[in-house]
């Protein structure tokens, strides 16, 4: 018997299929994941006819806890039951025309349905009807490819990728997610068909890209995207980071491979997709800000600021959300040098307060990004930076407890300042507000109302004297 993870539900599907006298199979990703022992909540059931009837019958048996949706136009149905999503589709045959990745569909046999699948490991089916319950139907040796960790297409790869170029992204995504090799013939086909990616929507591309980014070692996927030339088409800004230059014997590191190293380092410590995106984009403006200065070598002054300003266009091109997620990435890109600068020098209270003030609740994520950014191979430097980061971290905790600077609100609002001095809105109020903030961040006064008021009165008098 096959190691079904949800045996009870398959027994039920089986009895429904027998009552309706229909052939039914579990197919695709769920079957692959059973053998890989990966949890998967999406079950695809393929039937030879009567897909909707099978779903309806199963729904009756499952009772109220199950929810059925029928899509008559597509001849498909879906059942949501606990955390499972079960799709029912009739077996189909597909053919493509060149301008679209949407196939022309007609009814077909199980074999036709397996032939339309992208990879051999995704084309395996397991019978759930009485006459074939638990039987593996694996016409393209997907099982062997699972064992050998190979991504291979059932049909000629040139045709597979040209028909639906999203499959190129999927091949690389599975390789990165599962740690599988894409067979050479397939890799060459992706390289030669790469231009076909233009018929795929940006949303679909970034859907796969995000899955690559969420894999345990995302550099695997990015290197494949780069080597096949797909990355140049879908995300040209990151490709510009690749390469080094030497002038007068001085060179700079390859920022593409550095970025991938940072991304892998960070991925060992977080599953936060947007934090991972901030690693991808932290040095994105290095090519645009690169200068050679005699005596200094290469510099990238202001790359954090320019990088943060590049984020919205990159997000828009990739159809990533232009909301607070994007702002979070921008903020981390903008601040990514700050803890490193601190960790290289003497760590002053005032600098740590300012960092805490600007990073707010994202301070812990920023520290994770910065630690991941240490890619030097010099063990002494690594040791020194990590030690200094520890000092930064403990100072952060100490000052946070003392000064409550995370998501800081001034102890006196603009209105209170106006009331105190009988001012109307204008430049003076802004000057006083900034002076108050700086005095608190520099540790000159306590972060409370009384100390703030006293300081403001002194500051106001000082300003009045200057005015006179
Ligand atoms: P995941 O669940 O990790 O997103 P998956 O491939 O298992 O990946 P789906 O994307 O829902 O999940 O696809 C389900 C199945 O449909 C696949 O296993 C494959 O057999 C088939 N499939 C999906 N996309 C394609 C495609 N573009 N071309 C051919 N077959 C596809």
Beta-strand share of residues: 5-15%
Secondary-structure class: alpha+beta
Q: Which sheet architecture does the biggest sheet show?
A: 7 strands, mixed
What is the number of helices? 24
Helix content: 40-55%
Bound small molecules, which ones? adenosine-5'-triphosphate
The strands making up the biggest β-sheet line up spatially as 3-4-5-2-1-8-9
Rounded to the nearest angstrom, the distance between the terminal CA atoms is: 94 Å
What oligomeric state is this? single chain
Low-pLDDT stretches are none
pLDDT averaged over residues: 92
Number of distinct beta strands: 15
Globally, the shape reads elongated
CA radius of gyration is 29 Å
Notes on the protein architecture:
A hairpin with a 2-residue loop joins strand 4 (76-81) and strand 5 (84-90). Helix 13 runs antiparallel to helix 14 (273-281). The chain has a seven-stranded mixed sheet with strand order 3-4-5-2-1-8-9. The chain has helices at residues 7-20, 29-36, 51-62, 110-115, 142-148, 157-163, 166-178, 184-193, 202-213, 219-228, 230-234, 236-239, 255-267, 273-281, 286-289, 303-317, 324-335, 338-344, 349-359, 363-372, 379-403, 414-421, 427-441, 449-467, and strands at residues 24-27, 42-47, 66-71, 76-81, 84-90, 92-95, 104-107, 125-127, 136-137, 150-151, 181-182, 246-247, 250-251, 291-293, 297-299. The protein has 468 residues and is of the alpha+beta class. The radius of gyration is 29 Å and the shape is elongated. The mean pLDDT is 92. The chain is built from 24 helices and 15 strands. The protein binds adenosine-5'-triphosphate. The site of adenosine-5'-triphosphate has 11 residues, from strand 2 and helix 7.
């Amino acid at each position: 018997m096959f190691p079904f993870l949800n045996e009870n539900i398959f027994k039920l599907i089986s009895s429904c299929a027998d009552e309706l006298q229909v052939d039914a199979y579990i197919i695709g990703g769920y079957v692959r994941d059973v053998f890989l022992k990966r949890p998967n909540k999406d079950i695809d059931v393929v039937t030879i006819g009567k897909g909707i009837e099978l779903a309806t019958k199963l729904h009756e048996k499952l009772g109220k806890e199950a929810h059925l949706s029928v899509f008559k136009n597509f001849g498909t149905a879906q059942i949501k039951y606990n955390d499972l999503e079960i799709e029912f589709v009739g077996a189909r045959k597909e053919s493509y025309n060149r301008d679209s990745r949407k196939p022309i569909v007609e009814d077909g046999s199980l074999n036709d349905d397996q032939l339309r699948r992208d990879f051999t490991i995704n084309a395996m089916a397991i019978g759930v009807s009485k006459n074939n319950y638990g039987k593996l139907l694996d016409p393209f040796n997907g099982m062997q490819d699972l064992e050998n960790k190979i991504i291979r297409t059932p049909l000629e790869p040139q045709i597979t990728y040209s028909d639906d170029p999203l499959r190129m992204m999927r091949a690389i995504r599975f390789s990165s997610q599962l740690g599988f090799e894409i067979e050479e013939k397939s890799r060459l086909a992706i390289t030669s068909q790469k231009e076909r990616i233009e018929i795929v929507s940006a949303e679909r591309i970034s859907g796969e890209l995000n899955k690559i980014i969420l894999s345990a070692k995302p550099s695997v996927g990015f290197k494949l995207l780069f080597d096949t030339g797909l990355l140049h088409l879908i995300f040209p800004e990151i490709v510009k980071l690749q390469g080094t230059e030497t002038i007068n014997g001085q060179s700079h590191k390859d920022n593409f491979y550095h970025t991938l190293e940072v991304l892998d380092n960070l991925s060992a410590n977080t599953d936060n997709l947007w934090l991972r995106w901030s690693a991808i984009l932290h040095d994105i403006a290095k090519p645009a800000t690169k200068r050679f200065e005699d005596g200094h070598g290469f510099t990238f002054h202001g790359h954090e600021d320019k990088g943060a300003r590049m984020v919205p266009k990159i997000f828009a091109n990739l159809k990533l959300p232009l909301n607070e997620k994007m702002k979070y990435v921008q903020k981390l890109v903008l601040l990514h040098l700050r803890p490193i600068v601190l960790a290289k020098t003497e760590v002053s209270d005032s600098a740590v307060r300012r960092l805490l003030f600007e990073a707010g609740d994202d301070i812990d994520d920023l520290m994770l990004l910065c630690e991941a950014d240490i890619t030097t191979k010099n063990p002494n430097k690594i040791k020194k930076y990590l030690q200094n980061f520890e000092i930064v971290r403990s100072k952060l905790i100490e000052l946070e407890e003392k000064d409550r600077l995370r998501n800081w609100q001034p102890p006196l609002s603009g209105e209170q300042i106006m009331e105190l001095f009988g001012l109307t809105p204008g430049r003076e109020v802004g000057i006083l507000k900034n002076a108050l903030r700086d005095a608190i961040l520099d540790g000159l006064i306590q972060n409370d109302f009384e100390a703030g008021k006293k300081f403001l009165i002194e500051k106001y008098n000082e300003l009045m004297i200057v005015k006179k």
